[in-house]
Amino acid sequence: MKFGIHSGLWMTRWTDEIDPIMSIVADLGFDGVEISLLGITLERAAALKAAASDCGLEITCSTGLGVDEDPTSRDPEMRRAAQAALENAIRITSALGSRQLAGVLAAPWGVFDPTDKAGRAERSAEVLGRIDPLLADEGVVLGIEVINRFETDLTNTAGEGTALAKATGSPRIGVLLDTFHMNMEEKDPPAAINKTGERLFHFHVSDNDRGTPGSGHFDFASCAEALSETGYDGWITAEMFVVPGHPTSADLNIWRDIETDPTEAARQALQFMKATFQ
Question: Spelled out in words, what is the top-level CATH class assigned to the domain 2-277?
Answer without folding.
Answer: alpha beta
